[in-house]
Specification:
Helix content is 24%, strand content 24%. It has ten helices and 20 strands. The protein is globular.
């Protein structure tokens, strides 16, 4: 985000960024301020929204269109731990819509996770690292598995090496790891933490656990779900303050019933209840989020006390860098995957490859949320 700049886009690429007016080609679309033009948002942890489900074949394409309204231009459809056949089917069906946000790869949230920290998922879907299953997953995936959530206690250093050799960014989550186990995993090449503070034991001064290891390691990237439910403001600020070379990565962790009318919806073998701005199991446990990434950006400014430019980086450049992609930024030669926001950081336009793919519009209907893992 640069102050008072003129930007020219041609053939899907940013071709000029200037503090002075740029000669505009005949017939060009001209978009004037006031507003903020920024790199498009990237959601690296999203299961679905408005009834659309990554686990259901065919829904990723519709989800790629749905996410444009949040200023999202790229995302990782996130598959959940489920019976192997369901996971393989979901991986094989990942395909975006060319008119929507780009599918940048897949986030596999499991299945090599701890049954002691299942979150909302059935713990019997979790298992120790299985090289044969990993090979099946990799071969089945229609898009590269770029990110995987793992429990430190479910893998050895050799397993971590195998996954990293395949180009997978590893993220610690759904783990009951001790401080020592989590620290060893970071040393071995786990570079990120999934939904920080959640699905792991809380911090204790004599048993700091994975949370303590994360707070002690400022070089580790950390997902934050800034919906006001998953993490209170003070620990969110603490996590941000302890990052040195590590990054805060804003995610939605949005689930299929998100944005649906209040009521009960089936997903991932569970019944989820939508009420106000939350999605929960009928027991009251949080079950993913109803958050949008643009709302997370606004809350980062309000709750973390960071400048808008820093909050925008947490939703764009940080997630890209966290999964091994060029952070790009708004500069000459970068892909024109952009979001135009109003002064209050609400999206006005979303562009993918320089083409306006979404303009601010009215509400959409909600499909029935269901899952291939039901």
């Amino acid at each position: 985000m640069l102050p008072r700049r003129h930007v020219l886009v041609a053939n899907g690429i940013v071709t000029a960024v200037s503090p002075t007016p740029i000669e505009t080609p005949a017939g060009a679309l001209v978009v004037d301020g006031p507003g903020i033009l920024a790199q498009g948002f990237v959601d690296t942890h999203v299961h679905g929204r408005r009834g659309l489900d990554v686990m259901r074949p065919g829904d990723v394409a519709a989800l790629s269109l749905e996410l444009l309204a949040q200023g999202v231009t790229g995302f990782l459809p996130t598959v959940v731990a489920a019976p192997p056949d369901d996971v393989l089917t979901a991986l094989a069906s990942v395909q975006g819509d060319p008119r929507g946000a780009r599918v940048l790869g897949v986030h596999a949230e499991g299945p090599f996770l701890s049954p002691e920290q299942p979150g909302m998922f059935p713990s019997d879907a979790f298992r120790d690292y299985d090289p044969a299953l990993w090979r099946e997953m990799r071969m089945a995936a229609a898009a590269r598995i770029r990110l995987m959530t793992v429990a430190a206690e479910r893998l050895t250093t050799a397993h971590i090496d195998e996954l990293r050799a395949a180009g997978v960014t590893l993220s610690l989550g759904h783990t009951n790891a001790t401080h020592e186990q989590a620290s060893a995993a970071f040393d071995a090449g786990v570079t990120r933490v999934t939904h920080a503070y959640n699905a792991m034991p809380g911090f204790h001064h004599r048993a700091p656990g994975a949370v303590g290891a994360l707070l002690d390691r400022g070089d580790i990237d950390a997902e934050l779900i800034l919906d006001g439910l998953h993490v209170a403001r003070a620990p969110a600020r603490l996590l941000a303050a302890t990052r040195t070379t590590g990054r805060i990565v804003l995610v939605s962790d949005s689930v299929p019933p998100a944005a649906c009318p209040p009521g009960d919806y089936p997903w991932a073998g569970r019944r989820l209840r939508v009420a106000e701005n939350s999605v929960r199991l009928t027991s009251g446990r949080l079950a993913g989020s109803a958050l949008t990434l643009d709302a997370a950006v606004r809350r980062a400014v309000a709750w973390l006390g960071v400048a808008p430019a820093a909050a925008l980086h947490m939703a764009s450049e940080n997630p890209r860098a966290s999964i091994g992609l060029d952070p790009a930024g708004l500069k000459t030669g970068a892909a024109a995957d952009l979001v135009l926001l109003d002064p209050h950081l609400h999206p006005r336009l979303t562009l993918v490859s320089g083409v306006v793919r979404w303009r601010r519009n009215g509400p959409k209907h909600c499909a029935n949320a269901a899952s291939a893992a039901d």
